[in-house]
Design a protein that fits this description.
This protein is mainly alpha-helical. The protein contains 9 helices and no strands. Helix 1 runs antiparallel to helix 7 and helix 2 crosses helix 9. The chain is globular, with a radius of gyration of 17 Å.
Length: about 180
């Protein structure tokens, strides 16, 4: 199978599973519109692609990072996600129209940092790339970014299309 196609499948494998970044993307799209959702989508796709290029270089490129440093990074991400959760709960029940709109750039910066620090992405990409001998960082970056961006775009568009119908549910969704 073609290396680029395998890298694209790896991008889909790390992007498609439901998780906090997917929920953030949908929430931002429903709350602040397509621009904010696309800001999250592009940022997460870029972060995953950068991690994909690191994974393609191999275990040696990240082998010098101590397990303690990885735990600290995971703890920082957990605290950041906790902070996002607290903010969501604080605004839960408020209609989106009463909140100020956020720009795609502002929303995207936080999503990019969360994507870079998500602890499960690098091991998943390492496993896929090692299994299929993908060692070209440029191909890994392009494949992961392209397929990941397509997934995130699809997710944003679906959320945007359902935005009007989802407004009543959104008030309850924040509590979930």
């Amino acid at each position: 199978m073609d290396t680029f196609l395998l890298a694209m499948l790896a991008g889909l494998a790390v992007s498609a599973p439901p998780g906090p970044l997917g929920a953030l993307c949908v929430s931002r799209t429903l709350r602040w519109g397509l621009g904010a959702g696309l800001g999250v989508a592009g940022s997460v796709a870029l972060g995953d692609a950068l991690l994909g290029s690191v994974a393609a270089v191999g275990v040696d490129a990240i082998g010098d990072v101590s397990p303690d440093a990885r735990r600290i990074a995971a703890g920082v991400v957990a605290l950041a996600l906790f902070g996002v959760g607290v903010r969501v709960l604080r605004r839960a029940g408020r209609p989106p129209a009463t909140e100020p709109a956020r720009s795609g750039w502002r929303v995207g910066t936080g999503a990019f940092l969360l994507a870079l620090c998500t602890p499960g992405t690098v091991p998943a990409l390492l496993a896929v790339f090692a299994t299929f001998s993908i060692q070209q960082p440029a191909i890994a970056f392009a494949g992961v970014f392209l397929c990941g961006a397509c997934w995130w775009l699809f997710l944003c568009l679906v959320a945007h299309l359902l935005r009007d119908r989802a407004q009543a549910v959104l008030l309850k969704l924040d509590y979930v």
